[in-house]
Structures are given as C-alpha cells and as structure tokens.
Amino acid sequence: MSTNAKYIAGGVIGRLVFSSEKGVNVISTPFLRELDARLAEVEGDAALRVLIVIGEGKTFLAGADIAEMSAAAPSAGRDFAALGKRVFDRLATLGNAVTIAAINGAALGGGCEVSLACDLRVMSSAAKIGMPEVKLGLIPGWGGTQRALHLLGPARARRLVFTGDPIDAKLAVEIGLVNEAVEPDQLLEVAVKLASQIAANGPQAVRLAKRVMSRVESELLKSGMEAETAAFAEVFASEQGREGCKAFLEKRPARWT
User: Fold this and answer.
1) Residue 154 lies in a domain
2) What domain range includes position 174?
3) What is the DSSP string of 163-199?
4) Does 41 qualify as catalytic in the annotation?
5) What would the pLDDT profile of 195-218 be if each residue is shown by its tens digit?
6) Quick check: is 113 catalytic?
7) Looking at 133, 189, 219, 250, which residue is catalytic?
8) Per the structure, how many domains does the chain have?
9) At 257, is the pLDDT very low, low, confident or very high (cuts 50, 70, 90)?
10) Are 128 and 111 in contact (CB under 8 A)?
11) First and final CA of the chain: distance in angstroms?
12) Is residue 33 part of a domain?
C-alpha cells in the first residue's frame, strides 16, 4: 500500500501526517503528488501559523520507494529528482506557517530531506536519521546535500552524506541537525508546546522573519540545488546506481564495478 499524506487543520496549529497500512512510510511518485496537494491545502488555511509534520507507525519517512526507482527507466532520474525537489521546496518556503518536523521514527534518505525542509526539528530518542543513498550507489536528490551543508557546515554534512550511516537523536542534537531530542511518548506534546510558543508571538513578525530567512537560504542554495539534480540524474542512470537498488531489493551486498 502507498503512503498517504493528510492535513489536519486545527486553528493556528495544524498537522501534516504521513501514514501507511504497514506503518513503514516511503516516498513514491504518487506520494509526492499527494504531498503537493496537501501543501496546497496548508497554504489555503488562513488561520494556520504553525504546521507540525509527523509520521504514524514505525517511521517518519523511511526514504524513497526503491522498487519504483529500480523499475524506472535510467533516464527517469532527472524528473524524479525535480518533482521531489519542487515539492520539498514548497514545504521549505511555506509563507503562512512555521514548520516543525516531529520525527517519530526513522527519517532516512528522502525522509531526512523532508525534515531538513522544515524550519525546526524535534526528534524521538527512539528514532534514527540519516541519508544512506551512497549505500545504494546514489546521492540525495531532493535538496539533502545542500540543506545539510547549509545547516551543519562542510565537515558534518560530508560525514553524514559520505558514510550514509544513520545517527541517533543524541548525536543529531549535538551536530545541530535537530533542535531537541525527547522521549517517544513526549514527542507530540513537546512539538505542540513549541508550536504554541511560536503561535503566541506576533503573526506578521513571525511570517516576515521566516520570509527573509527563507529568501536568503533559497538564494544561497540555488546553484547547488541545480548541480545536485544533475548529479542525481547522472548516478541514477549509471550501472552502479542500478546495481545498488537491485542489491537492496535482493537483500545482498552491492557489487560495485
């Protein structure tokens, strides 16, 4: 079953919720299109000031749908990257709401990239976060390399991307990837408390502060984002990229050539 995105309006604080039948939320082309539609709902909510982004089940978002990627034509990489980047950029630049990623479970690959597109991140101590794309012979293609570089600095971003190893909430806080680590049963409570603090402030001031910060960030990231899309398309079409996805599905080590 595919992963769903649902917007739950709640006055000044709303929720964007990811869910799937088996509790393992993955990012596919249909999911990206649905997320785009839900973000249109978010943008149309005049009462909204803060949006909490959270998953249901075992994961926040476990990453891209590897089966879909493996079955796609080698030439499809650029379009897949461009679609995800457009939707995640829409999340990153929401004009009417500050966004808080409440990371309830694994946030890997594209899931990490979604959290990076949010303004703030609160993470369960039981969760893991990272960008394991290099283990599949790929690279982050939805802004992950650039947002991580901007947020963490060169050394920490390179370690996260080059090793592909997920990290726990404690280390994520230490390196500045997330703002706060909390016990699993306190995650939503803490996210709502943070959202309430933000929503209590001057709405115009918060909105304008976000606008100017988002604008500067977008300009800084622009050329790198274009380079990332081109690089993802190249590696997606390569023999190593195809082998990495195939090996993952076959549950065996990749045979790099």
Assistant:
1) yes
2) 4-186
3) H---EEHHHHHHTTSSSEEE-GGGHHHHHHHHHHHHH
4) no
5) 999 999 999 999 999 999 999 999
6) yes
7) 133
8) 1
9) confident
10) no
11) 34
12) yes
